[in-house]
Amino acid sequence: MLVPWLSFTANTALISLIQYQLNLEGDIMSEQLKTQFTKRIIELQQRIDSIHQDFAEGRNADWSEQAGERENDEVLNALESEAKIEIQQLSNAITRIDNGSYGICLDCGEEIAAKRLHVQPAAIKCIQCAD
């Protein structure tokens, strides 16, 4: 985007302005991602709290009911584990946003495709390295 009729100083200033705007847009996008991830973490924590409340309610005295409740407990334990894993992944993604490494593959150092990050926002590897 150099303009031939502008002086070197003017072109340098123009380049600096464009870089500033790109950095500003990147900062805004980073803040939006962090907000989105934080909201999801809050949702997951609420789910975990709800699971803990269900466990705290106690169990039915009827033996047949207790068998069904134990099966339900297994499902709730699995949901809690998945929520905790996702919370950790999103927290790590926020850290990567803060240190400027979000969207960069940990293995090869290349950018992770935007489509992959859209589907799996906490992805740490590009599709080639993930296989």
Helix content: over 70%
| Element-by-element helix/strand order | HHHH
Total strand count, please?
0
The count of helical stretches stands at: 4
Low-confidence stretches: 1-6
Largest β sheet strand count, sense and barrel closure: none
Strand content: under 5%
In round numbers, the mean pLDDT is: 80
Calculate the terminal CA-CA distance, rounded to whole Å. 39 Å
Rg, rounded, reads 24 Å
- Which class best fits the helix and strand makeup? mainly alpha
Describe the protein:
The chain is an all-alpha fold and 131 residues long. The protein is elongated, with a radius of gyration of 24 Å.
Spell out the blueprint of helices and strands.
Layout: H1 8-56, H2 63-99, H3 114-119, H4 127-130
Helix pairs in contact: 1-2
Can I get a quick summary?
The chain is mostly helical and 131 residues long.
